[in-house]
Amino acid sequence: MEKQLSQATNENMQRVALVTGGSRGIGAAIVDRLAATGYVVYFSYLQNHEAADDMTKRAGRRGQRVVARQHNNRDADDVAAFADEVLSTEGRIDVLVANAASTVFRPYAHATDKHWRWTFDVNVRAFLALTQRVLPHMEARGGGHIVVISSAGARRAIPSYSLLGASKAALESLVRHLALEFAGRRIVINSVVPGLVETEGVQVFTDEASRRLVRQRTPAGRLTSPEDVAGVVAFLCSPDASMIHGQTVVVDGGYAIVG
Ligand SMILES: NC(=O)c1ccc[n+]([C@@H]2O[C@H](COP(=O)([O-])OP(=O)(O)OC[C@H]3O[C@@H](n4cnc5c(N)ncnc54)[C@H](OP(=O)(O)O)[C@@H]3O)[C@@H](O)[C@H]2O)c1
What we know:
The protein is of the alpha/beta class. The protein has a single domain, classed as Rossmann fold, CATH 3.40.50. Helix content is 51%, strand content 14%. The protein is built from 10 helices and 7 strands. It has a 7-stranded parallel sheet, sandwiched between helices. Helix 2 (25-37) packs across helix 9, helix 4 (76-90) runs parallel beside helix 5 (113-141) and helix 5 (113-141) runs parallel beside helix 6. The longest helix has 29 residues, at 113-141.
C-alpha cells in the first residue's frame, strides 16, 4: 500500500526538463515553451548571468519554476554533474533538450586540432555525457523524450562551417542510433533543424544582406523565429509524437526545399 502511494505521488510530481544553453536565443524560447507546458525547467548557460537571471525572474512572475545553472558543455564532467544535480533534486528528468553549441567559424584549411576539440567537446561529447546519465534513468522510469538541436550544415556545405557541420552530422547520426536502441523502451529521440533564426549567435557568421537573401528565398516569406522551433520541440516531447523516432525535423519555412 505504502509502495503504491509513493508510486502515485511520484507520478503526480511535476515533469522536469533539462535544456542546455537556455539563457538566450532558441534555447530561451524552448525553456519558456516547456515551462508554459507545465514542466519544471533547469537550463544551463555559459557566462551571461544577466540573461539567465532575467529568464528565471520572468518565469517566476508567471508562477513557473525555471532554474538556471552555469555549466560549460566543454567539460563532460561538468555537464554530467548538471544532470546529476537535477536527478538528485527533482528525482526525474522527463525531457532533455541538447541545444547549446559552439564552434570556431573558419575555412577548414585554417582549423586546428584545438578548434576541432572545442567544437566536438561542446557539441558532441557533452551530449554523450548527458545521455549516459539521463538514458538509464529514463529507461528505469519507463520513458522520456530527447531532442537535439541540429543545423542545416549537418547535410549542406556552408562556407567556414565545416567543424560545426561535422559535429551536427555526428549528433544526427547519434540520434538515429540511439532511437534504434531506445525506441522500444518508450524513449523518443529526434533532432530539429532550425532555419536561419536571428539570434545573437547567428550574427557572428551572417550579415544583414545574407539574412535578407534567406528571407527572400524562404517560401514562407520570413525567417524562422525561436518560438517556431520551440513549438516543434514541445510537440516532439508530447504524447502525439510517440511514434516519431530518430527523425530530423526541419523548421525553416521551406528554405531547404528551394535554397
Ligand atoms: N540561430 C540560428 O540561425 C540557428 C540555425 C540552426 C541551428 N541553430 C542551433 O540552435 C542552437 C541555439 O543557437 P542560438 O543561435 O539560439 O545560440 P545563441 O543565441 O548563441 O545562444 C547560445 C546559448 O548557449 C549557451 N552556451 C554557449 N556555449 C555554451 C557552453 N560551452 N556551455 C553551456 N552553454 C553554452 C549560451 O550561454 P550564454 O548566454 O551564457 O553565452 C546561450 O544560452 C545551437 O545548437 C545552434 O547550432 C541555430
